[in-house]
Amino acid sequence: MKKLMIFRFTLLILITLVTGLGIFLTRMNYLKVNPHVLCPYSFICFGIPALQGFFSRNPVIIGSIVGAIILLLTPVLGRWFCGWLCPLGAIQEIFYKLTNGKSKGKVKPLISDNWDKRLKLIKYFVLLGNIFFAYFLIQALYMKACPLVALANLGNYLLVSSIVFFIIMISSLFVERIWCRYFCPYGALMSLLLLLGNLLRIPRIMLKVNKSMCVDCGLCSANCPMQIKVEDKNQVSNSECILCQRCKAKCPRQGIDCEFCNKGGKDE
Ligand code: SF4
Ligand code: SF4
């Protein structure tokens, strides 16, 4: 299991480095790629023009297609993209490890569970606002604040997105994956699809807790980057789970498994 965790973290770092290198080469004019083509969120961010890209040579089309494929797979594979592929998620994990890398996972979360639940709703409003501006007012407003744009340093929108990026990174020193949990509209979209999948009982991959093995040590919950109360459940079909499997890796009793659940489901 430790090997899987090392593989996941290495993969995240590699993707971040490749993305960063691509952006750097583009900015140095060695590559002629519009960085937006890499972003799976572009078809929401750019709204109608991105959809029109399906029928034209609009550069965001590749990102849009990738984004649509990820979303289609979400009811079955969960938020695997967040846990395994997103460069922004990786950067946040690295920042959190800078201050908490040596802890044994027993650190009391800075944000209480009640506040965590409330704050997780913010991302749905970000998504709704984004859809409204992109599809009704035909303005890519979200791009002005997107922290990934700060990295890509695109055009005129640098100031606000840089401030957002800076705030997220500083906050990530204290709260793990703060952007993914509370603000990311693409994460919100995936969570909504997961909730729909739960409702329709679509078979999907999820973590299962074997209660007969559990000794209530709480290490699974204490190590969950999304602050999910893993030990309280039989199966983690929580729409916030990013399938990182850290709970499974940290369980001293090997009481957690990542399984394909035929019945899909809701939290039990
Ligand atoms: S880490 Fe394992 S033993 Fe500890 S509470 Fe979680 S499931 Fe139970
Ligand atoms: S429940 Fe487990 S797999 Fe899901 S986010 Fe938390 S630690 Fe990762």
Mean of residue pLDDT?
83
Low-confidence stretches: none
Instruction: Specify the number of helices.
Output: 15
Distance between the termini: 25 Å
Proportion of beta-strand residues? 5-15%
Helix and strand content put the structural class at mainly alpha
Radius of gyration: 19 Å
What is the strand tally? 3
Shape: globular
Q: Largest sheet, described in full?
A: 3 strands, antiparallel
**Helical amount:** 55-70%
The small-molecule ligands in this entry are: iron/sulfur cluster
**Number of separate structural domains:** 1
What is the ordering of alpha helices and beta strands? HHHHHHHHHHHHHEHEHE
Strands side by side in the biggest sheet? 2-1-3
Verbal overview:
This protein is mostly helical. The protein has one domain. The chain is built from 15 helices and three strands. The protein has a three-stranded antiparallel β-sheet. α1 packs across α6 (87-100). The model has no long low-confidence stretch (mean pLDDT 83). One iron/sulfur cluster binds at residues 209, 214-220, 230-231, 250-251, 253, 255-256.
